[in-house]
Amino acid sequence: MQDSHILLSVRDLTKHYPAEGNGFFHRNNEFIHAVDHVSFDLREGETLGLVGESGCGKSTTGRLVVGMEKPDGGSILYEGQELAGMSRKELSSIRTLLQMIFQDSYQSLNPRKRVLDILADPMVFHGIVSRADAPRRVGELLQLVGLPADAADRYPHEFSGGQRQRISIARALSLNPRLIVCDEPVSALDVSIQAQILNLMKDLQDRLGVAYLFIAHGLGAVHYISDRIAVMYLGEIVELGEGQEVFRHPLHPYAQALIGAVPAADPDRRPDDASILKGEAGDAVHVGEGCRFAARCPFAADQCLREHPVLTDFGNGHLAACWRAARGHECEPGI
Amino acid sequence: MMKKDVHETYAGMVWRRFKRHRAGFACLILLLAIAAAAVLAPVLAPFDPDQINPAFSQAPGGPYLLGTDQMGRDVFSRLLYGTRVSLTVGVLSTLLATSIGVVLGLTAGYFGGWADMVIMRVTDMIMSFPYIMLILVAGVIFRPGMWMIILILGFIDWPGVARLVRGEVLSLREKDFIHSAEIAGMSRRYILFSEILPNCFAPILIFATGVMAISILDEASLSFLGMGIQPPQASLGNMLNGAQSISVLTGMPWLWVAPGVMIILLVVCTNFVGDALRDAMDPNTSW
Questions:
Q1: What is the distance between the alpha carbons of residues A155 and A72, in angstroms, rounded to a whole number?
Q2: Closest to A37 in 3D by CA, of A335, A314, A257, A292
């Protein structure tokens, strides 16, 4: 995995939204730092998990990658091609290679269209199949995601949430993409269905070699499916590394807290104090100079309040942005 | 799992649910019957509507099913022809208003920016005029007549449709299936006409029934005030216009009861049909 080809290379990706109160009669220069200098690589056929709490910028990162939003800075290199400044027209040829799956499967399928049309229209539009040949290809796709062939004649509301998510996956795959951004694809599903969908996605990755950028707020699903994990906090990546490595030896106290919050089937296990997050998520407008996590960090020292930690390699591609880790204290997983 | 073994098309589901709304369904049948009678007026009417018969102001009876007016014209024949005019005005002006509103609403909602700004300010302007005044002024400027009324009503009723469509487009644009079409690199035209427009169809249709009811009423008001359909051509409004005096109101009810009841029937039935459509097309209820 280490040597394989880099598909997507994101560098210093930045997106700021004007803070509220920025109206016609009232201007201010405050911004919400939704995504702030985020950098990561995604290799071919790999899954990168992006975790963090609500509002940490993980979904915005995904939307930037597929071009739903325009970045304010940084670059998104897909196969060496810069996507960040591309026009709508230029993007449309690359977009087939970059698809997305959404959290709400009901909203992500047009309620007025049959599954056949939902799946066939983009393929026909891009000349992947002819209109006459589309039903056969749709049948193949449905089979690929484990749905019966007669599903093609039905409307989205006739399916359960898990089945609709399978249709979404089939639609994303229909254009033969190399990368699929998955924005919390299983968060809205029952736990038993979650496992089915995750297994399907893993299986499809093995067969088709597609890469996933898997966005989720909990570590459970991410740990199961991801080769590597990136932890985001207030618009920044605070830890990045191989999935097992991050899970067993988290370097950043925030990652440690997240891992401590994954429920385990052990009644005697109690999360220790350090692993319970205290306080509210920080303010993405007034980010200050120090570490953004300092206000909630049980180990915050003077340096953390004054200086902003940079993402540093701690060996084996395991990166973290934490002064405490830099001083050599390894956090124990919160057990 | 699959909810039903036999799956149905959207139109099929709407029709099944529409039939369950008893009042709406009955009103639809009644409207169709009235429309059929209006279309077949030349066949059904016992007299020429403008023909002056030897019996003046005669009460219903004999060959005159609903009596005759002061000039000896058969009220039943005039009612059929008047209904024909009212329905034509209602349907055509609604079609015109809806077409204008849909095009402008889609443009404003999807493209936004200055197009949105200009269209919405014009919409506000038209909506802020007193309605009946605007129609009257237009009626004074342009030579009254059926086609003129259709044009006037069509050009005055579109702002409501435009606002509705714009609102629908704005909310649909944020739906993930539109995002998904954009990410798939589909063209603007495809997104606008194949993804967005079919999803606006239900609210537009429901709103259009309301516009039609109002158009029928407006035509009647305009003709009642003498600014609409000009005599001798019959319309429901100018039939009422002939019944303005107290002596007619008290002494010859057959002159105004029939056209009055017909207007009420048309408006109430159209509104009930709209109501039933709203229930049948609402995707949030399933039965």
A1: 39
A2: A292
A259-296 residues labelled b (16+ CB within 10 A) or e (exposed): bbeeeeeeeeeebeebbebeeebbebeebeebbbbbbb
Nearest by CB to A158, which of B2, B179, B185?
B2
Residue identified by tokens 């606002």 is: B163
**In this complex, is the C-beta atom of A187 within 8 Å of any C-beta atom belonging to chain B?**
no
Asked if B236 and B82 touch (Cβ cutoff 8 Å), the reply is yes
Q: How far apart are CA B221 and CA B218, in angstroms?
A: 5
- A159 CB neighbours in chain B (<8 A) are 2
A284 SS3 class: coil
- From edge to edge, which strands make up the β-sheet containing A236-242? A98-101, A179-183, A211-216, A47-51, A228-233, A236-242, A319-320, A312-313
β-pairing, A47-51 with A211-216?
parallel
* pLDDT on residue B234: 86
Measured between alpha carbons, how far apart are the two ends of chain B, in Å? 17
Q: What is the largest CA-CA distance in chain A?
A: 68
**Mean pLDDT on B258-275:** 92
Average pLDDT over residues B243-249: 80
Q: Which residues of A touch B184 (CB under 8 A)?
A: 95-96, 99, 122, 125-126, 171, 175
Closest by CA to B9, choosing from A91, A153, A23, A268, is: A153
Q: Taking CB atoms and an 8 Å limit, are B185 and A157 in contact across chains?
A: no
Give the side-chain half-sphere CA count within 13 A for A196: 15
- Token readout for B57 is 């102001």
What pLDDT is stored for residue B225 in this prediction? Answer: 83
For B169-188, the pLDDT digits (tens) are 999 998 999 999 988 888 88
For residue B280, the 8-state DSSP code is: H
Give the Å distances, CA to CA, from A139 to A131, A152, B41: 14, 7, 54
Helix (H, G, I), strand (E, B) or coil at B132: helix
Question: A156, A94 in Cβ contact below 8 A?
Answer: no
Burial class (CB in 10 A: 0-12, 13-18, 19+), B247: exposed
HEC string for B68-119: ECCCCCEHHHHHHHHHHHHHHHHHHHHHHHHHHHHHHHHHHHHHCHHHHHHH
| Pairing state between β A179-183 and A98-101 | parallel
Whether the CB of A93 is below 8 Å from some CB of chain B: the reply is: yes
Question: Is B183 within 8 Å of A68 when comparing Cβ atoms?
Answer: yes
Unique residue bearing structure tokens 């919405």: B120
SS (H, E, C) B136-195: HHHHHHCCCCHHHHHHHHHHHHHHHHHHHHHHHHHHHHCCHHHHHHHHCCCCHHHHHHHH
Judge whether B110 and B165 are in contact, CB under 8 Å. Answer: no
CA distance B179 to A108: 8
Q: What is the ipTM of this complex?
A: 0.84
Residues sharing a CB contact under 8 Å with residue B204, sequence separation 6 or more, in sequence order? B98, B102, B161, B164, B165
